[in-house]
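pasting for the record
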Amino acid sequence: MTAKSVIVACAGAVAVGLALPASANAAPVTIIPGLPPIDIPGVAAPSKPKPKPKPKPQPAPETDNGVTVPAMPAVSSSTGWVALADDASHTIFWWKDGEYNRSMPISMGTNQHPTPNGTYHTKEKHREMYMDSSTYGVPIDSPEGYRTYVEYAVRMDWGGIFIHGAPWSVAQQGVSNASHGCININLTNAKWVFDTIPRGTPIVVRGTIGGGNWRTPRD
């Protein structure tokens, strides 16, 4: 066989191969880019791509007891709980696993004894304790002095800031600041915090005029 006849034979074999389906059960499908698939009897049409879902509209800001709920602070939490004590609204907000949980009216430190801004983490808990101004140099009998019995006290830092029950400041809670630096809440809310919030939970304090750290417990 000559070289010319070999080329012709190979070309013929290729033509035959292109004319036949790859297997006995396969059916030829013609797809032209830019055009819709051609329907062929007995052959399932290619599946159409599913439309992308439209983004859901963002919900309007929530309110709780007439107070607008802010965005959850972007802080990490080993307990799943995150809190924000907001001075502008005199409210503390709580989230669990990214979901809003509740709010509570609060009273933080006055301008003379402001609660420092920053991120705190809950530490030890005291069912009952006394807070004594003499421990940081202010005599009990002075105008700024006190020795106060408190319940459901949860330490926020080792400098002396607590969130605790303060029945004497309920009228100020949600309205104004009246403490010596701690976060005052009513006894019902204080018991909930004491019973529910684990050690290591971040509490962000925002919007006060405070700076620095306390060194001893204050009410």
